[in-house]
User: Fold this.
Amino acid sequence: MSLGGIMQSLGGENFIIWMTALSVFVSVFVVWSSLIAPRPLRARIKSLSERRDVLREQRLELRVHPLRAGMIELANYVVRKLSLLRTSQTRRIEDKLMQAGYRGHDAMVMYLFLKLSLPAIFGTAAVLVLYVFEIFPMEGIAKLSISLIAVIIGAYAPDVFLSNTGQKRRLKIQKALPDGLDLMVICAEAGLSLDATLHRVSSELSTSWPELSDELGLTAIEIGFLPDRSQALANLARRVKLDGIKGIVNTLAQTERYGTPLAQALRVLSAELRSNRLLKAEEKAARLPAVLTVPMILFIMPALFVVLIGPGALRTVDALRAQGFM
Assistant:
């Protein structure tokens, strides 16, 4: 049936009414569809929430062992009763723990508990060994000195452990930094955003350099959660005390502030890091002769003197003995 036949069968006014109703229905449907369409921000928030849940589950897996859970519970009780978390040194201790790779409330609690309990444990062990069981018979002053040394060792053991762990971790991150920068340059040139670049580089380095992968992954998550990206970058510089990381943070902050190309800035920074790495290698090579001087004097020169002077000394001794002087 043609359009004219439909109009004649419905009548002109009815046809206009039906067409108006149909157009209103279509308009309402289009507007409603646009309102209920999936929003990118909501999908992004959902993905970040899922990522946060995964990280929380991975962290909770470390507490499965009942002995570890009981120790953490005891440490929480002692720290809470003594109000050790309210001290002025909490911020400094938190920085040291993060630089060593330990994060979260439990790490802070365990550090404070060990800092409090280890001197007592070491001192008690020294008193039992020296005074009660008398395994090593010594004088009274020697026993007292060893007991005090044991207490001092227990007091400084957590700090020494954190310092050594943080130094080793920084060294690994410094070695992995040029490779991570090269991957960031590739991802930036491919058109990825900053958080996507950090996620990609973190996943690629998870096997070869897990320390740098952990830091970049955490920074990518913070960029998605925090309202200011510069705060996430500042947290990265706070967790890793390296000049290379500070350079990366400053470069990324400048690209965010002034809109400079990210790939170009990262390429310049990567070249600078590699040149610094080459300069450090040349510095070590130039320092090598001075370092080898002492081993040469102690080990090589005596043997050389024996080889050169030994035969002449032996001939001199034989000549003097033949003439009766010896």
